[in-house]
Amino acid sequence: xxxxxxxxxxxxxxxxxxxxxxxxxxxxxxxxxxxxxxxxxxxxxxxxxxxxxxxxxxxxxxxxxxxxxxxxxxxxxxxxxxxxxxxxxxxxxxxxxxxxxxxxxxxxxxxxxx
Length: 114
Fold this sequence. Notes:
This protein is of the alpha/beta class. The protein has a single domain, classed as Transcription Regulator spoIIAA (2-Layer Sandwich). The protein is built from 4 helices and 3 strands; from the N terminus they run H-E-H-E-H-E-H. It has a 3-stranded parallel β-sheet, covered by helices on one side. Helix 2 (22-41) links the parallel strand 1 and strand 2 (50-58). The longest helix has 20 residues, at 22-41. It is elongated. It starts with a helix and ends with a helix. The model has no long low-confidence stretch (mean pLDDT 86).
């Protein structure tokens, strides 16, 4: 992550990282703290800088508990957006992908409501 990016953009998109791995979580936490420091130095409130967890939840990672674990980790890091990937699991049609997205949405909604 570059300081310059904070001055020119309004967010950060970490790609294909697994925050459920404790070492990766710690690394991300440090990077996000640095991002917030850069934002403050640019006179921008840190909460104005979005964090999109690109491929934050992969359908192939399993079922509801695995999806919720990833979403919870990203939420605790301060992610403002979470993308979902339904590719490479052999879904036969667009409708199957849409159904998978609905399942993930409901699982994550239930997780966030406790």
